[in-house]
Design brief:
87 residues, 6 strands, 3 helices, three-stranded antiparallel sheet
């Protein structure tokens, strides 16, 4: 008998693929997103273990518990639409 994941379970875990002096790259099941520090200052000067500990709490919604930051794909792709959040 073959077991499979329940419908809706994400088989592609979200992960941080790169941290540089310019920003952070987040790999989702669908794409890799860049978060420059100028738009996402919460990640700058954080320890690596705080940045890499990210979970997808719902589809396209990510949470970093060690720095209490939650972002959506829309916020990452279009930070200019969320000036009070991203600035």
């Amino acid at each position: 008998m073959m077991n499979s994941l329940a419908h809706g379970d994400n088989i592609f875990p979200v992960e941080i693929t790169h941290i540089s002096s310019h920003g952070v790259w987040l790999l989702t099941g669908q794409e890799e997103l860049f978060m420059p520090y100028q738009d996402f200052p919460w990640f700058k000067n954080q320890p690596v273990n705080a940045i890499i500990e990210v979970e997808e709490i719902s589809n396209g919604h990510f949470y970093w518990s060690k720095i209490d930051v939650d972002l959506t794909v829309e916020m990452i792709k279009h930070p200019e639409k969320f000036p009070l959040v991203a600035r």
